[in-house]
Design the sequence.
């Protein structure tokens, strides 16, 4: 059995191969996704280790390859917090792994464009869930739950998502989980068109979106558990001080109480200071 880091690196290699096979028109072989997903799901008691690993490898691989892998791992952690049974966890991880597979059909210059997209360009970018679905449906290796998780991961609870504008319970559970994992990784990763933000800002944004766009129950489970994980963690502040998080107020997640060199700083009071990085 691989250790956790080896499993992650293996997943990155699989992700890279999938993208290249699609772009060069080669036959798509997705059995390694299933095998790797089963391997990931063996780490049932490793949610803390997984989050620590993801923090340490952030930005070490190209976003195109690392984002699906990170989403797969984060989705697994959320699914574990939701007490999903093993068979569903494996399918969830497969869906997370493959959720952006359609982006391999879209030019990098468009995916990485820093300027505002034209209407036509936006239509091409937001077509990726449908492209992903068509690719996977043609391969015929995954069941409908996995395919719907891929197709619906940009649907939103209030009907503002795409491609169908589904609402609430019409959205597949895997898609709801992947939407949260996708949002978290996208915010905390460096991309060519925007700078990454701190994990606390990502959590706060997810919490804010739980009132309309993201599933409120799954968000609550995610936020509560991730706050527990971050409590006590080493951080770097915007003033370059290094310390530890002492307490996170769920009402204002980005402004925790921190300890730096035996001095306590309440960032809800010292509002010009921010947590910029988890160490």
Sequence:
């Amino acid at each position: 059995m691989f250790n956790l880091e080896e499993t992650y690196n293996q997943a990155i290699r699989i992700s890279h191969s999938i993208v290249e096979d699609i772009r060069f028109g080669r036959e798509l072989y997705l059995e390694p996704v299933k095998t790797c997903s089963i391997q990931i799901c063996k780490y049932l008691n490793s949610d803390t280790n997984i989050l620590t690993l993801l923090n340490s490898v952030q930005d070490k691989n190209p976003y195109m390859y690392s984002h699906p892998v990170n989403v797969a791992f984060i989705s697994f952690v959320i699914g574990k917090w939701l007490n999903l049974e093993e068979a569903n966890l494996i399918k969830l991880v497969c869906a997370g792994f493959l959720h952006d597979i359609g982006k391999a059909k879209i030019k990098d210059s468009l995916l990485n464009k820093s300027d505002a997209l034209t209407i036509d360009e936006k239509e091409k970018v937001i077509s990726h869930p449908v492209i992903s679905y068509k690719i996977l449906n043609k391969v015929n290796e995954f069941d409908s739950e996995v395919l719907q998780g891929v197709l619906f991961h940009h649907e939103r609870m209030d009907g503002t998502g795409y491609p169908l504008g589904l609402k609430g319970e019409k959205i597949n559970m895997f898609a709801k989980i992947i939407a949260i994992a996708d949002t978290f990784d996208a915010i905390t990763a460096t991309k060519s068109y925007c700078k990454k933000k701190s994990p606390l800002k990502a959590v706060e944004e997810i919490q804010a979106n739980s009132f309309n766009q993201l599933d409120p129950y799954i968000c609550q489970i995610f936020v509560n558990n991730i706050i527990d994980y971050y409590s006590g963690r080493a951080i770097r502040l915007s003033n370059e001080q290094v310390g530890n998080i002492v307490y996170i107020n769920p009402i204002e997640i980005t402004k925790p109480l921190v300890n730096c060199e035996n001095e306590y700083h309440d960032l809800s009071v010292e509002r010009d200071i921010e947590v910029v990085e988890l160490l």
Notes: The domain at 4-230 is CATH 1.10.3210.10 (Hypothetical protein af1432). The two ends are 28 Å apart (CA to CA). The longest strand covers residues 242-247.
